[in-house]
């Protein structure tokens, strides 16, 4: 496998915590069993919990997209027993809150164009990042990146670069939620999927070591299970499932993740615990 | 951080399509705002509209990206030879070695707003020609610009509301530092749409008059549109004295509220402190601060407090939003270019629309443009959701203290 570009500084992090919510996969514990082949994937619609961290008044304002992002981020932070208030964050999603966008566009197409203030402040693409900050009191840098179907790759690149720059932990949250009709016809997505990785500098923690080796034009890794492979292909936020599969099985090795045309990300997983 | 060279830059906003018109308007302290005549909007407000954006033709190969935001992106690319400089960088470094990282808040949502008016009455379906990926999707502008300049390196959009296109400078600097790329096209493109005009109106944050940053009678923003770009490269060993460098970046979160700033400006202060720290500078080194200064009572008060806490009341500062309006996701990029012009033209921009300065805000606010020799300047971009970014730019001839 040849690399078309390699970093000139080490881009490596320990995975201190993982969060996952997807169709039939309620959390990382459940997903790990499925990805390791110890349990079958039971077909089910993605169940998105209401994050317990925000006060009820604030929680009522949240769209499903933001609930997904916050819930999956909290899973990773709690799995690592980390302090969310201290973490820099990278949010990556292929689109914003489709349901909220639909409601705004419908209002704007009507006679009375009165948008509710809550609708408007939920319309920013960084709504998940904003509510995360309010919920966790985290004042560190937070960013929101998007690259259509390559959003997982963009999130990983930005996270590794941020971690190398600051030598501080970075929480990466990747999430996508289907759009309602009529937008759904133009951007079909079968269901919601979110994942989070708490990445810490190699010397600062324990856990598997993940290295970003560089760009490659090799084909992305796929999954043997047809249902999981469909999830990877059809939901951009699930593009890193082959990496999570290796983590679930405790298997060192390299993984190629879809980013942009002829620009896949090659990652290497080492130092997994027995 | 290792300073990066802004080898080329350009700006298009309501004060000028390209740098020549822009610098003339900045030097004259004039505003480009006009009463709202956009689309079917019936609000009594002022906007910063770029003339004839809707008439811009895209090359046939990029026709699927036709949308106001990408038309504005294309118009901006044509100015000051920027697209030629980007092509040259692609040729010099290799297509995969040039990244495209842009900021926008709404991308081309206008196309979706219009498509919703033209839904099939029976089925509710959007018109068949509606192209989600080419227009509405937030990444559409970075995909479009990447294709337009022939780059094949990493690309993404940062969308953190009004700090979007300041944060792209920080993201690009980090990416160049990894060694995966040699150069990056950064900047921001945001265009007028109904969502932001009616949305800010619902928050009672749009003014019925041209905005008046830091004026005691300020009562809201004027929404504008802009396309601004910079080509960032590693600084060569030898640079002319008037070359412009990115020397510091600072990012923070308010962790306070979705649509109002931390009342003490704590997030803004953290971002400014971060930018000074990475630049290796003290507050006294900064010769001019381009304020976020939107003209809402809460923003200006909080930012003013943060600036006073860190800089006292001696550092010249102004907001240029009375000239351009608040160009939202493009504001950081646009004001970064204004900072570059401040060095090359030796000019501190004024604040059209500001008649008197709020006596409750203890900073050195400049209402009218004035000549000054500058070595280091700082610009603030403070976004919805409490996402903040400050950047420090330095003149190569005065980069060390």
Provide an overview of this structure.
- The complex is a heterodimer of chains A (274) and B (401).
- Chain A is 35% helix and 23% strand.
- With 274 residues, chain A is of the alpha+beta class.
- In chain A, strands 1, 2, 3, 4, 5, 6, 7, 8 and 9 form a nine-stranded mixed β-sheet that branches.
- In chain A, strand 8 and strand 9 (263-270) form a beta hairpin.
- In chain A, helix 1 (28-35) packs across helix 10.
- The longest helix of chain A is centred in the first third of the chain and has 16 residues, at 64-79.
- Chain A is globular and about 60 Å long.
- The longest helix of chain B is centred in the middle third of the chain and has 15 residues, at 164-178.
- Chain B is 31% helix and 21% strand.
- Chain B is globular.
- With 401 residues, chain B is α/β, with parallel strands linked by helices.
- Chain B has helices at residues 19-28, 68-78, 82-93, 109-117, 140-149, 164-178, 194-202, 266-279, 297-311, 321-324, 331-345; strands at 4-13, 16-17, 34-35, 46-48, 98-103, 155-158, 183-190, 223-224, 226-234, 244-253, 288-290, 316-318, 347-348, 364-365, 370-371, 376-383, 387-395.
- In chain B, helix 9 links the parallel strand 11 and strand 12 (316-318).
- The interface between A and B is large, with 72 and 70 residues.
